[in-house]
Amino acid sequence: MDRDKILLTPGPLTTTLRTKLAMLRDWGSWDSDFNDVTARVRRSLLRIIHGEDTHVVVPLQGSGTFSVEAAVATLVPRDGHVLVLDNGAYCKRAAKLTTLMGRTCTVMGFDEASQVSPAALADKLAADKTITHVVLIHCETGAGVWNPLQEVADVCAQHGKGLIVDAMSSFAALPIDARETRFDALIAASGKCLEGVPGMGFVFIRKAVLDACAGRSQSLAMDLHDQYVYMEKTGQWRFTPPTHVVVALAEAIAQFEAEGGQPARLARYTQNYQTLIHGMSRLGFIPFLDPAIQAPIIVTFNAPGDARYDFKTFYASARQRGFILYPGKLTQVETFRVGCIGAIGPNEMEQAVAAVALALEDMGIASGEPAI
Ligand SMILES: *Cc1c(COP(=O)(O)O)cnc(C)c1O
């Protein structure tokens, strides 16, 4: 049937018709109409974190990782030393890009089923004075862990270290308040919890560190300071902007504001999460994480223990019923993931659970209960 499948993934996400329709026009990148949209989007983004007084926001073309890479390149001096708090796949990606850009990088490993530890961070910063910046992934999308942003930010502030936060899968859903939480940079993107389409990221940079960032980036296209200065001067993007993505994001933000902003979005995703968890537990599935550290963004489930289980078959079966699941990203155990984000509500989550039940039936599996 000619209906889009529901994306239960960490992005791209299911978007509203209104957001999709916003893309049916052509815009000139020099034109004042388009520059007005860019300016409006930037103002709205700053309001979401209450950062008008303390931060600027710099958009960048590309997927979310482009903006993480740009933030590290722009913020960290070439002789800087980055400590990555690692409890999952996106942390490892941040460490890899930091190393590739020639910055000294130390990885502090934690279990992928637990939060990173602010106390261990404090000990590390006391022991190694050469560290200049800390990288934290707010919601580790690999397993779905909600990391303790406020506590990590407090430790970094006490030690005078710069904090770079990848808030890609949490921004606009989990609370982030720049008036209370001190960070030098925070990164998110158009195609995640704002429910726009993918194609641009944006980085909040603390005004107090902005000037010092000039000339640090070894990349022309990824230099956020340069992008910022040019945008402030001309109202334009330095290089061809993703015009359709920007106007879709403006439309998505209007709907986000009408829904009630971040608290309303968190409430809807929490409802989605609870509907999913209850439905899946009826089928015997067990979530991988302790609910105390689970963000209502994406849920990792242990794979069924039944020998007839096969992810490819499971995926194809759910897909045929209109739902796109996501593979697991853990190294030790077999899992799969189900996203709770996007322009969907509890009805879609109920239907997703029904599709999963039928997929089990297709494979001849009586219960989602894992082996152990
Ligand atoms: C989605 C995501 C990214 C960016 O991934 P892209 O594929 O580059 O868009 C980065 N970090 C986290 C935590 C994410 O969830």
UniProtKB/TrEMBL annotation:
EC id: 2.6.1.37
Chain ranges of the Aminotransferase class V domain: 31-314
Pfam family of the protein (one): Aminotran_5
Keyword Transferase part of the UniProt annotation: yes
GO molecular function, a single term: 2-aminoethylphosphonate-pyruvate transaminase activity
Binding-site list for substrate: R337
Top-rank EC class of the record's enzyme: transferase
Keywords assigned by UniProt, alphabetized: Aminotransferase, Pyridoxal phosphate, Pyruvate, Transferase
Quaternary organization: Homodimer.
Primary role: Involved in phosphonate degradation.
PANTHER family: 2-AMINOETHYLPHOSPHONATE--PYRUVATE TRANSAMINASE
Name this protein carries in UniProt: 2-aminoethylphosphonate--pyruvate transaminase
Organism: Caenimonas aquaedulcis
